Amino acid sequence: MHGFERENLSSRIEILNEGGFRSDGRRQYELRGITFDSTPQAGADGSARITHGLTEVLVSVFGPREARVRAQTLHDRATIHVEATIAPFSANDRRRRGRGDKRVLELAATIKATFEPVVQTNLYPRSQIDIFVHVLQQDGGVLQAAINATTVALINAGVPLTDYVCAVTGGVHATAPMLDLTALEETDLPHVTVASMPRSGRLTLVSMETRLHVDRFEEILKLAGEAGAVIHKEMRAVVRERTKGLLDAMSIGLRASKAAEDAMIEDE
Fold first, then answer.
1. What is the CA radius of gyration of the chain?
2. How many CA atoms within 13 Å lie on the side-chain side of 47?
3. Which distant-in-sequence residues (6+ apart) come within 8 Å of 47 by Cβ?
4. What is the share, in percent, of the chain residues with pLDDT greater than 90?
């Protein structure tokens, strides 16, 4: 779908009707369905695939490991390297975005700036942590999905964080704040992406691409904090389930090892 066609489509769709429902049937503050998949990716130390509605992002983490470029090595902490790619089939326009594309570079730089204060890099001097972000499907909230997937992928890789990082996008239609915007809503509405740390209540990212009235901005920050708490519960459940699976696998392995050892003793 070309940009002109998309603009006409968004103008024909009612963002928020008189009954308080959005074009996809949600209420103002209602989040889209969120799913996490922690299936290991080949060679990665940790990974996570997330869907926010129709938006889908896969993040793979490698490290901490020895820094490859000595000139970029820090003697007192690890460096964080983020690389992002956007699949050509992820959006309707099917535009191919290379690694040097401005939007791709901004996405990688924003994720890096978001996690540098959160990752305990001081525990891994002269090391490197590589984060690869793959955008597979776009329908609004790409940055929030990438941040949330990166949080889970880092935890799965065993990288220590000071807190979870939970992100959500908020916008305003007339005077009505809305959360977790779709692509059409992002096109029509002023919006901001907020990444919060639920335990401390601090913000690690506030990213605005459009102007937003200060009164609405404060309201969205509050709502984003509440939405972050909901996302935090989802993340914790996924991490606990994965941890339980690893412990169960270790327990089965230990029992099998002990049984084999007992059998060898009996044979002797």
1. 21
2. 16
3. 38, 39, 40, 41, 58, 59, 60, 61, 153, 156, 157
4. 65
Q: Which amino acid is at 16?
A: L
What is the C-alpha to C-alpha distance for residues 101 and 132, in angstroms, rounded to an integer? 16
Number of H helices, E strands in the chain: 5, 9
> Average of pLDDT values for 14-37?
92
The span from the CA of 182 to the CA of 199, in Å, is: 28
Taking 60 as the threshold, does the pLDDT of residue 252 lie above it?
yes
Cα atoms in the Cβ-side hemisphere of radius 13 Å centred on 195: 25
Please say whether the dihedral angle defined by the alpha carbons of residues 8, 10, 13 and 14, taken in this order, is positive or negative.
negative
Give the pair of three-digit tokens for residue 9. Answer: 């489509």
* Tokens describing residue 234: 């989802």
Q: What percent of the chain has pLDDT over 70?
A: 86
Side chain identity, residue 108: A
pLDDT, tens digit (0-9, with 9 covering 90-100), for 186-202? 999 999 999 999 999 99
In the chain, where do the E strands start and end? 34-37, 46-52, 55-66, 79-86, 127-137, 166-173, 176-179, 191-197, 202-208
Structure tokens at 222: 């509050």
- From the number of C-beta atoms within 10 Å of its C-beta (0-12, 13-18, 19+), residue 228 rates as buried
Alpha-carbon distance of 86 to 77, in angstroms, equals 30
